[in-house]
What we know:
about 140 residues
Amino acid sequence: MTFDRKNSAGYVVNLMARLFARHLEAGIRPLGLGTGVFPALLMLWEKDGVTQRDLVDALEIEQPTMANTLSRMERDGLITRRRDETDGRVQRIWLTDKARALETKATGAANAVNAKALAGLSPGQQKQFMDLMRRVVATLDHSR
């Protein structure tokens, strides 16, 4: 049996992800951001003061990768790390004013990419597309 990449869900999803990333990068690069830090920023914009473990678990990123990402974010003035007030062994990650000020523009760029990508679908098709993707993710996530 031959492999047909044009009809492979994995291949097409990977291609789509790379295209989303390329367009997002173009939108957030002028803000001094890259796609590597964007997922962590999204989570921190939702809930500031989480731990590195929280980020690793929520974003499903390997611990060493997250450590490097956080080091870059700290170097770039986007986060600070402070000891937890109740457990000194734990460090919490806090957004800086600089990072908070970027939220509207950065998420606006992401929303613009999403709108552009889904523009060829009706609102009903967009909802169905998102629902189907979530089901595939859930299926793969539960089969690990």
